[in-house]
Specification:
The protein has ten helices and ten strands. The chain is α+β, with helices and mostly antiparallel strands and about 250 residues long. It has four domains: about 1-45, no CATH class; about 45-85, no CATH class; about 90-115, no CATH class; about 145-245, no CATH class. The strands form five sheets. A two-stranded antiparallel ribbon has the order 1-2. It has a two-stranded antiparallel ribbon with strand order 3-4. A two-stranded antiparallel ribbon has the order 5-6. The chain is elongated and about 105 Å long.
Length: about 250
């Protein structure tokens, strides 16, 4: 048997089945879709778009929280600006070519291509301006460097201590590497001690420089050090023994 209820908009009496009343969680009943739409429209709150400033009506639940209310917009076009989907017209910081970038992709410096980005970095992100600057290359290793270098090469039989390449089989002169970087030693005597020198080929020397830079530089995280050891596992034995970091 249907039960009489009152329309929430026009107060007209309508009949509803008991299961319809039980399922209605909000307690609102309407005699027609016209009254339902009119009721919902009457509940709308006048709001102002945070992007374009246009006045529009928004549903009450969208304005419950202040943070959410500040992100309410009048259209999907304005909403895309907040979400970073919109784009802006810019010019390349190197060549001046006009380009467009999404709001979410904007950087301090924007370029039309990787080629322009590389040229800009070569001009402005070098030396002390580089994010990877670590003090520069030390050309002078002290008055005993040449003598200690010859002793290290002679001790190692002019053989790469990492891959075993002999100098007579290589197309270049084998190099001598500082296990602990020269700039991290207290003086040239400590840096050029035979215990801190090792003979390496050119490829192994490059890999050893990467690993030593990350091991002795506090700016590198543990994850980056482990990544280096994974990428340059051939030089792992130069710095680590069975108990850990070699002295």
């Amino acid at each position: 048997m249907k039960i009489p209820v009152t329309c929430s908009y026009c107060s007209k009496t309508v009949l509803k089945w008991p299961y319809q009343i039980e399922r209605c969680k909000h307690g609102l009943f309407f005699c027609s879709y016209t009254c339902q739409r009119a009721y919902r429209k009457a509940q709308m709150v006048l709001s102002i778009c945070s992007i374009c400033g246009k006045e529009f009506y928004a549903k009450p639940y969208r304005l419950k929280k202040l943070v959410r209310a500040q992100s309410i917009t009048c259209s999907y076009k304005c909403k895309s600006v907040i979400l970073g989907w919109g784009s802006q017209s810019l010019t390349c910081d190197w060549c001046g070519k006009p380009l467009k970038r999404k709001n979410a992709s904007l950087n301090v410096h924007n370029f039309c291509s990787r080629k322009c980005m590389g040229r800009w970095q070569s001009a402005y992100k070098v030396g002390e301006n580089s994010n990877t600057w670590r003090g520069g290359y030390e050309q002078y290793y002290g008055p005993n460097w040449e003598r200690q270098r010859r002793k290290a090469r002679h001790r190692d039989n002019k053989t790469c201590q990492c891959c075993g390449l002999r100098e007579q089989d290589a197309d270049h002169t084998l190099e001598v590497h500082h296990l602990k970087p020269f700039r991290d030693c207290k003086d040239y005597k400590q840096a050029n001690s035979l215990a801190n020198l090792i003979t390496l080929c050119r490829d192994c020397h490059v890999a050893a420089d990467v690993v030593s830079r990350r091991l002795f530089d506090d700016n590198w995280t543990e994850a980056q050090v482990r990544e280096s050891l994974n990428d340059y596992c051939a030089v792992f034995g130069l710095y680590f023994d069975e108990t850990g970091l070699a002295p």
